[in-house]
Fold this protein.
Amino acid sequence: MTTPTSLSLKKIYSGKVRDLYEIDAKRMLMVASDRLSAFDVILDEPIPEKGKILTAISNFWFDKLAGLVPNHFTGDKVEDVVSAEELPLVEGRAVVVKRLKPVAVEAIVRGYIVGSGWKEYQKSGTVCGISLPAGLKEAAKLPQPIFTPSTKAAVGDHDENISFEQCEAIIGKELAAKVRDTSIALYSAAVEYAATRGIIIADTKFEFGLDEDGTLTLMDEVLTPDSSRFWPAESYVEGKNPPSFDKQFVRDWLESTGWNKQPPAPAVPAEVAQKTADKYREALVKLTG
Ligand SMILES: Nc1ncnc2c1ncn2[C@@H]1O[C@H](COP(=O)(O)OP(=O)(O)OP(=O)(O)O)[C@@H](O)[C@H]1O
Ligand SMILES: [Mg+2]
């Protein structure tokens, strides 16, 4: 079962990966499907068990980081809000969450210079407008983690990197500072733990919402292979983009087909889907033991 096609609860949002169902005015059921989006296009073939793996990894981090910031969990169990009949459809891939008012930026933290950050640095010596020391190599560790927010694009659009000033203009100065400081604190705590499991977290994206009282609350997914770059510490070398426990495997396969990155994506062979699932599972096992 990849994603339930119908639950008695009313579906209120279908994202690239997750579906949201209304429980009542204050609560939602968030269900992670096995869909994978690469280059912002949803693949037609599900990645077996991906939604369950993402949910397990996120739940692990929400718990571990609970002391740093309130999160979106209500404390209710899925079986409290889904009938016994429907439970098997969502078991392991659903959580009961507070309906928050999303903070309209994606809170990205980078501890290493790679991907779009590396591309920008080569051109201008900056990442998202932040000046960095000269002479950094690809995948180098930054002197300290940096906050590089992006816009939250609507389905079908690409998120766009913005400066901290633009972030302040979108969500307000005070909230921007709070989101930045909280994101860096979360990233730093996660990095420290991951190091004990032989994993480098190169970068990650957090999402926040505000509760009824305006309290900043961590939501969505946390430190999964979909939202982060995880590198095995043992194969890390500066100057090379290391192999990762994330979508890179399926991205590389997609690029090898010569696809122009416009929907639809090429059909993913079963063995590529399975190998991708294996990478996600490896991240879960390595992180949580
Ligand atoms: N507690 C919450 N309250 C309100 N919205 C939430 C909460 N938790 C997650 N969301 C939102 O639910 C949606 C989850 O869907 P999904 O992860 O598939 O993302 P998406 O919107 O397609 O795009 P992206 O993956 O780029 O964020 C996101 O829009 C996320 O911001
Ligand atoms: Mg998302």
The first helix runs from residue 50 to 64. The chain has a mean pLDDT of 94.
